[in-house]
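Let us work through a complete example step by step.
Step 1: write down the sequence.
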Amino acid sequence: MIDEIRVESWPELQEQLFSDSWQEKLSRFRSTFAFRGRNDAAEDLRTSLIRLGGDVRAIETPLLRSFRRYTRREAVPSDSAWDWLALAQHHGLPTRLLDWTYSPLVALHFATASLERFDRDGVVWMLDYVEAQQEAPEQLRRLLADNAMDVFSGELLGEVVAGLAELERLAAEDYVVFLEPPALNERIVNQYSLFSLLSRPDVRLDEWLESRPHLARRVIVPAELKWEARDKLDQANLTERVLFPGLDGLSRWLARYYAPRGDG
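Step 2: predict the structure and record it as C-alpha cells.
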C-alpha cells in the first residue's frame, strides 16, 4: 500500500515535500521525486484518456491523428510522436500522459488552487521517477545512462521508440518512463513540467504502483490547512499569474486572491 502522510502544520508540510532530497554523492539537495498536486485527495491517477471512457486502445491513435491533421506543423519543434503527444496534452487533448512537476511548491499550488474545494483534503503525490524507470526495458535504461539523463526528451526517446505502438512492444510487462516536454511556451517552463508515460494506454499509474509502494507516497494537505498554505504560496509568488502567463492567468489569480474567505 502506498504510504500516506497527513501533515498537521505548514512546517511539517514543507518537511515532507522536501524529504529525502539530500544526494550524498553530490553534497547537494537534489530530489529524485516528481510531484503532482490535486485539490481533492480522493482523486486517483487515471489519465485524461482513461477518463474519456470507451475503448481507449481504439480511440487513442485516431484521436492523435486528428489532432495532428488540424494543427499547424510549426506548433511543434520537431515532427516526432513525442513532441506531438506533449503538445496535445498541453492543450487539453485526452492522452495517456499525466502532468507532473519537479517543484513541490508548484504541486502544492495545484492542491490549493480551487477555493470551491477548500472543504476537502488535497494531496501532493510524490513519485521517485529515477527509481521507477529502472523497470523500463534495458534499451531505454541504457539510453538514459549513456546520455547522463534522468528523464527523456522527445528527441532522445525517439532514438529507440518512434511511436506509441513500439513503446508497448518493447516489453511484455507494463512500465513507465518520464518525458520532459519541449519549451513550447512560458507556461511549461514556469510550471517546471514533466510527464509520466505508461507503456499501455489503459493502465492506471496508481494501480501500477500498488505492487511497487516504495516508489511513491501521498502527502495529504488537510482542508483546515489549505488557507494558510494558499496565502503563503501567494506571498511566495506561486500563483496563476506566474504559472499561467497571460491575461487568463492574471484574471484567475486576481479572482481567487480577492475572493472573500467565507467558510469553504
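Step 3: interpret the result. The first strand starts at residue 3 and ends at 6.
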